[in-house]
Design brief:
217 residues; single chain; globular; mainly alpha
Length: 217
């Protein structure tokens, strides 16, 4: 989730909304797949079914939006969604409607739409987990599983990014280096400070993307 929140605003500013979101979907899906390898036994299939099913239903709607809106509007909408998502996660909002099966369906639907439209489908899932009272041990593997599924749906709906072979090598290499650096810093930076840094970077990126979109209207 941190990857998507931080990377999406930068990618849509560099590559444009459509290509930036698709690349973010591919990269986030790959990261979740690697992360899931060590914790797949802790996935709760019964809890994940309504979340993933609802996401599958709304992914096409997000794709439709990205193909219909002009680029300035897309930047404004995506930047706004990222900004709103960051603020909600910062608050850890507790909403009665996000509990139980109804809450899972709502969170999954919102996450599927936001993931295919703006590349950030994690915050609704995070808010659902907070309201469901999940522990970190429960949250992480299930979030990884959800990320694999919703990003696979999003890539199937949006298509693959149009990158050259050299660009793909650079992207994969950068992700690998970033992962190694992050692993090395994980034990040196307090979790709360690292979380705040990620959210502030994401907030700054979301506001920048929204501002660029509004400037172009």
């Amino acid at each position: 989730m941190g990857f998507a929140l931080v990377a999406v605003p930068a990618l849509i500013l560099l590559l444009g909304p459509a290509q930036g979101v698709v690349l973010a979907n591919c990269a986030a899906g790959a990261i979740c797949l690697v992360g899931l390898a060590g914790g797949w036994r802790l996935v709760r299939p019964r809890a994940m079914l309504p979340l993933c099913a609802a996401a599958a239903c709304t992914v096409p709607a997000g794709t439709w939006v990205t193909h219909q809106l002009p680029q300035p509007w897309l930047l404004s909408v995506m930047g706004g969604l990222v900004t709103a998502a960051v603020l909600l996660v910062m608050r850890g909002a507790r909403v009665a409607a996000l509990r139980g099966t109804q809450g899972a369906v709502f969170a999954g639907a919102a996450g599927g739409f936001m993931n295919s439209a703006a590349g950030v489908g994690g915050p609704p899932f995070s808010l659902y987990a907070v309201n469901a009272g999940w522990t970190v041990r429960e949250f992480v593997p299930n979030a990884m599983f959800y990320g694999v599924i919703v990003n696979a749906f999003s890539v199937a709906s949006n298509g693959m990014p149009g990158l050259t072979e050299v660009q793909w090598v650079l992207v994969i290499g950068a992700m690998g280096v970033g992962g190694l650096v992050g692993r090395g810093l994980a034990s040196r930076i307090p979790e709360r400070r690292a979380r705040l840094l990620v959210l502030l970077l994401a907030l700054m990126g979301g506001i920048t993307a929204a501002g660029k979109g509004l400037w172009g209207l």
